[in-house]
Amino acid sequence: KPKPKPKPPAFGVLSSGGARAPTKPAEKPKPKTTVVRAPTLGRPDISSASSGGIAGPAGNRNLMPAPPPEPEEPEIGQGHLRDILQEGSFEKYGVGGLDAEFMTIFRRVFASRMVAPDVVRRLGMRHVKGMLLYGPPGTGKTLVAKQLGKLLNAHPPKIVNGPEILQRFVGQSEENMRDLFAPAEKEFKGKGDKSKLHVIIFDEIDAIMKARGSGGAAASVVHDNVVNQLLTKLDGMQSLDNVLVVGITNRRDLLDPAVLRPGRLELQVEVGLPDERGRRQIFNIHTAAMRAGGMLAADVDVDALAATTGNYSGAEIKGLVGAAQSHALARYLAASGNENENENENEN
């Protein structure tokens, strides 16, 4: 009578080391009692990252239950905002390497929204309703803009790619711009101070907010009309307390100077490459699920990784971790295939 086949092993992330992946067959697990897990992720070889790979053959195997699901992000309320102010860190909310930038935003954008509207009026304050995030690609500008809405318990943010606004039909581009602000205007008219915040994010805002007169004759008319329409809406926000406009760009120098004056995109924050502490935070964020699931080896040295990845952006560090996972999975599948072949030979 043929022996029953054991269930295929659950995949994990393989640890790096000096030895090759084991070639002799592993011991058979007892059916329906344990799951064979591949070794966990060890320290990647940074020198191979530029060629699209992070090296490291497999180590020894061990037995463990299947990993738990990825942990959910913590909910955010007014109490959490005060905790963040005291801690000065946003790592547990998925933002790494941008503590200083976020604290600047926090003081200028959040503070006036954490107290009663009546207090703000008596102080003669006004909310910051427009900000610009600029810097090199991959540094987390869009991530910061998205998290702002969560931290302020706002409506889900509207993320608009700059070129999507522009249309070839006369008047359509301006109408698209007006439509973005219409829900906020309607809600504020009906609910006043009780309306939730509307966050409108213009990604690649330089595509629609270039200096007026900088395009060709035909394109310049449509482009200038769109710039004028957005400036009008930004000015109109002075009577609305439920709107925050965030512009994102890699080329601040291309923007029309009028959009950067006070009362419009008045808060301008440069989001640069992370320092070593920031890179450590980013590595911790992108390996958190593996750590929670028992898939990260004890010999992973995040401090060493942060020290050897100078001038890496957040996006590049995320790609580095993803490359390690892909290479580990490939090695695991190869080792798993050898086991299946050996198992078939033993059954015959």
What does this structure look like?
With 348 residues, the protein is an alpha/beta fold. It folds into 2 domains: 36-66 and 278-347, no CATH class; 128-270, Rossmann fold (3-Layer(aba) Sandwich). The chain contains 11 helices and 7 strands. The strands form 2 sheets. It has a 5-stranded parallel β-sheet with strand order 4-5-6-3-7, sandwiched between helices. Strands 1-2 form a two-stranded antiparallel ribbon. Strand 5 (198-203), helix 7 (217-236) and strand 6 form a beta-alpha-beta unit. Helix 6 runs parallel beside helix 7 (217-236) and helix 8 (276-286) packs parallel to helix 11.
Helical/strand content category = alpha/beta
Structural domain tally = 2
Distance between the termini: 11 Å
Q: Write down the overall mean pLDDT.
A: 75
Give the strand content. Answer: 5-15%
CATH homologous superfamily label of the largest domain: P-loop containing nucleotide triphosphate hydrolases
Quick summary:
The chain folds into 2 domains: 101 residues, no CATH class; 143 residues, 3-Layer(aba) Sandwich (Rossmann fold), CATH 3.40.50.300. It is built from 11 helices and 7 strands. The protein is 40% helix and 9% strand.
